[in-house]
Amino acid sequence: KSGKSLEQGPKNLGLSLGSLFSGIGGMDLGLEAAGIGKTIWQVEKDPYARRVLQRHWPDVQRFDDVKAVGATSLRRAHVIHGGFPCTDTSVSGQVVRDQAGLDGAHSSLWWEMLRVCGELLPEFIIVENPPGLITNRNGIGRVLGGLSDIGYDARYDTLSSSACGAPHVRFRVFIIAYATTPGSARWFSEPDVGRVARGIPNRVDRMRCLGNAITPAVAYQVGLALRTMIECTAPSVAT
Predict the structure, then answer these.
(1) Which of 230, 188, 226, 152 is nearest to 76 (CA)?
(2) How far, rounded to the nearest angstrom, does the alpha carbon of residue 181 sit from its chain's CA centroid?
(3) pTM for this structure?
(4) 189-217 pLDDT, tens per residue?
């Protein structure tokens, strides 16, 4: 049912999408299905995930290091989205240790996402993370503050996979940020998952990437929310 609804998405707005921390493309798929537009580049370090992306987006430009990309290498996009590593923000981690949040070795890659967005100044930015981002003292407040520093206001909410028809709960936080200063951003033309391999090729890689992936049906709902914002603030884009 969810797959069928993704295939029958609304009319395409024709915007360009830039994908950071792409994984196996769950967010990319959901936003495209919601009719936001077409992915023009992806950034993902995991070799197996990049092979999956290559299979489904063969014509999209791809990079493997978020620290090495920016305005000199990435085309401008109307929307940049990404779920930066949650190793230092996850709720499960907070249960057993004092999570470092955005100061952690992994989740500090948020600052690279913010840098890229600050250089390219897209019309919209979408950020995804587990709900631990909200409860961590070095979490969502600093994300929102960073977005404000580069000229964006934001709305955020949590959404579960089960609410979109999936058989698992998997709550996630989604932030949609939008430019607040005229001219600061522009429109351009343009459950636990087993990890034990039992004779199935790439099973460990497949399970790891699925475990880190965004449910496309959830990303589809986020895309519909973004679409509503776009149509309310810039109705000419939807025509």
Answers:
(1) 188
(2) 23
(3) 0.81
(4) 433 334 344 444 555 554 455 445 777 88
